[in-house]
Structures are given as C-alpha cells and as structure tokens.
Amino acid sequence: MSSVTRASLDQKLALAKRCSHEGVMAGAKAAVLATVATAIPTLASVRMLPWARTNLNPTAQALIISTAAGMAYFIVADKTVLASARKNSLYASNRSNMTA
C-alpha cells in the first residue's frame, strides 16, 4: 500500500473516530437532560395523583425514565454523527474541487 493511500486511510479513520466521539458526547448530554426532565414529573405525579400511585410501581417509573433517556441518547447521537459526516463530506468535496 502506498504511503499516500495509507495516510488517507489514517486521516479518514481519525475523522470517523472524532465524529463518533462527538455523537457520544452529545447523546450523553441529551440523555442526562431527558432523565431529569422525565424523572421530576414522573416522581411528582406518583406522589400527588392517586391513579399514578396505584398503577405506577417503581419498575414502571424506572422504565418511563430510562426509555426517555435512551431515546434521547440515540436520536441525538445519530443526528450528530450524520451532521458531522455531512459536514466532513462537503468539506472533502470542496477540497477536492480546489485541488482539481
């Protein structure tokens, strides 16, 4: 394998790692925010509403909160990775047009 090809592959790999890291960090932040945003009303409703007190046991409460956190993580991480890949694709396209 030539050194130019090897350098290009290393650069693409580094770019992919950075994109995925950005996605993970953004997803984690969104998951924390979603956890807080769902935990407060869920726990408050169990204390204040008779229906919720009767029907939402601790397992159901945890399921509601963790589902919201998981959805937020995957949605935000996916959108972040796709946006980063799109940005890098446009950057690479513009760079190749400049050198041509």
UniProtKB/TrEMBL annotation:
<feature type="transmembrane region" description="Helical">
    <location>
        <begin position="60"/>
        <end position="77"/>
    </location>
</feature>
<feature type="transmembrane region" description="Helical">
    <location>
        <begin position="21"/>
        <end position="40"/>
    </location>
</feature>
<dbReference type="Pfam" id="PF03386">
    <property type="entry name" value="ENOD93"/>
</dbReference>
<protein>
    <recommendedName>
        <fullName>Early nodulin-93-like</fullName>
    </recommendedName>
</protein>
<keyword id="KW-0472">Membrane</keyword>
<keyword id="KW-1133">Transmembrane helix</keyword>
<keyword id="KW-0812">Transmembrane</keyword>
<dbReference type="InterPro" id="IPR005050">
    <property type="entry name" value="Enod93"/>
</dbReference>
